[in-house]
């Protein structure tokens, strides 16, 4: 009976710990949901205000200034992304050339189209921005293992704590 009691106490403590973790996750998800809801409400208010104030010439000028700033930011973003792409193309060429030669010689497995480091980084960034509550992507055979290892060793990406076939971008913005 004493052994059963000890085992049950261990199970109880484990379940309590798991419940605490789940409660923390729930609080975090609720906070994220509230932030998204507030953001949506703010955007709706701003849109309503913009629609009512468009008639004034001063607001039209301000609106045009904001549009110009947004346009400048978009062009700057495109310049940064193209510079990143050029850097990655120059220093991290696509793995297909070397890898396909090896696979053509073996002829045992079909050739898998490997994706570039730039595509991996884009997937990681897009996932982090679109779903910040679940920023992990699944690693499949189209990911070249040396690129995955490079991202992990440099600290740019992290593996999922429970599933080694998933990884996410290190959130530097927090």
UniProtKB/TrEMBL annotation:
Origin species: Molothrus ater (Brown-headed cowbird)
InterPro entries: Centromere_CenpK
Record keyword ATP-binding present: no
A biological-process GO annotation: kinetochore assembly
Keywords: Centromere, Chromosome, Coiled coil, Nucleus
Residue stretches in coiled coil: 5-83
Keyword Nucleus: yes
Subcellular location: Chromosome, Centromere; Nucleus
Cellular component terms per the entry's GO annotation: chromosome, centromeric region; nucleus
Domain of life per record: Eukaryota
Name by which UniProt lists this protein: CENPK protein
Family statement: Belongs to the CENP-K/MCM22 family.
